[in-house]
Amino acid sequence: MHSSTAICSVNGKLAGTYFYRVRGSNTWGYGEWSNIQPTTVLSTGTPILIAIDNSDQDNNYSVTWSTAARATSYTLQEDT
Predict the structure, then answer these.
(1) b/e string for 29-50 if b means 16 or more Cβ within 10 A?
(2) Contact (Cβ atoms closer than 8 angstroms) between residue 51 and residue 58
(3) Distance between CA 18 and CA 40 in Å, rounded?
């Protein structure tokens, strides 16, 4: 019996549950659908900003936050 695997990489999915199935085809048509397999993509979590200390008013301060589970990068926004 010949056994091998095929792969499809999926990237950038939003949080949620996704379901997959697959079927093969050749010049004679399509085969039956496979079983269905679910996967759940978790949200990155929510970081929490830590109070900003600029008590000396010297125009220099640090903005820090707690890390979020499963986050691999962060975007910090500033507004006036």
Answers:
(1) eeeeeeeeeeeeeeeeeeeeee
(2) no
(3) 6
The DSSP secondary structure of the chain, one letter per residue, reads: ------------PPSEEEEE----EETTEE------EEEEEPP-----BPPP--TT-SS-----B---TT----------
pTM above 0.70? no
Reported as a single tens digit per residue, the pLDDT across 31-51 is 999 999 999 998 888 899 999
